[in-house]
Write the structure tokens for this entry.
Amino acid sequence: MTPAEHRTLAAALGAALGPGTRTIETHISTLLLAGDFAYKLRKPLRLPFLDFSTPAARRRDCEEELRLNRRTAPELYLDVRPVQGSLAAPRVGTPGDASGAIDWLLRMRRFDDDLLLARLAARGALGAAEVDALAREVADFHAALPASPAAWGEPEDVLRWARANFAALGDTRGLRELHGWSEREFERIAPRLALRRAQGRVREGHGDLHLANIVMLDGRPVPFDAIEFNPALRHADTMADAAFVFMDLWRHGLPSLAWRFASAYAERGGDHEGLALLPFFAVYRALVRAQVAALRNDEAACARDIGVAREIAAARRARPLLLLTVGLSGSGKSTVALELLQALGALRLRSDVERKRLAGLAAEARPTPAQAGALYAAAMTRRTYACLGRLAGTLLEAGLNVVVDAAALRRHERDALRALAEAHGAEFRLVECVAPEAVLRERIARRAAEGRDASDADQEVLGLQLRIVEIPAADEGALRLDTDADPATVARRCAALAARLAAQ
């Protein structure tokens, strides 16, 4: 089939599908929108990265797209159907009937384009709830994937794709410094990439996980349009997928939500070590978007995306910050930590979550009395703080700001994290969250009734904490933050504190 014949077929199919059918063309496909359905025809192309030159090849690609996208969007991806008849008088056949097929198409269910996350972001309607849900969705998707075959995910492949961006963008856009940064950053992360590949962190992910490929359906963010035509672009470290979301939130002017997403993604799936790769992969993804803009001859968009890459590269700091939020149960330290990570551009480590992860429990699981005895024993507390220190060290080495959310009622627990920061050349700040005892007790009771938080602290635990707490001494330099206020006021106090910390 020639390109002209494809155009004839697409036009005739549009007429056959009925009045009101809309046609959308991409560089590799023609999409026909008719009623509740969308029909995707591949163009008869052979390019360096794909081959749609024969009907058999186009059928295989339709089937691959169906397989891949049913993993995340089964409600959207319906079936592969033959196109039967003639170029001038085609008809859409039924699945499984290949007789007389002249071409193949993928049938999908249509959705409201205004519910795309990119559109929500553009009109200021993308908020924390959607981002938190997306973090859970992506983390759970990645967790369910098997490791890729050994042929995929060599560190040298990662470098090759990164270098391809710079080659495609050329030498006229002032990229020499950013190119040097990418080369140095790859040297730093190459051993970790190899280790993660050996650990099974290279998986067949989405490959093109930006906000225009995610839609809200029934209140749930649904990724779709995974890359089907080039397996090398989707068999990658899972952080390459997560970094695309992070970068695109930043690209839409939402850096605070980008940090919230990255932190929530790691908290859900436990892949904090992977966050050490975040700056490299996010810069790579920004330059992918710059390359796409350049191919469209949109120099303004290309320059914007290169600017995003530079901003993200600058987020990797020579002297990062380790911020420890401490306080009694119910003092609001987790809320404060979440506010501060967004304001400062940081990643949160939460003791309640990591303690349960060490015990093989989900964050919101309620331990049995027998489990609780072991979970909150002194030995598990030591393991938990050792884990927090190890993860914080990994992130600090990567030049990333870290917020540790832990009660840290004993001075030696706080001093250990202070020493860790010093060992990694990082700044250390201590924030003490405080509220009256009556407020603490009311919050604990409400939290227990809701049953949605990782903390298991009850009134008895608070009583014990009040007896054993070692209040930060003057020489610890703690910054006190009063959380006895409505959420908006607490958020303003956190913003003011973050501004103060950033100015120091």
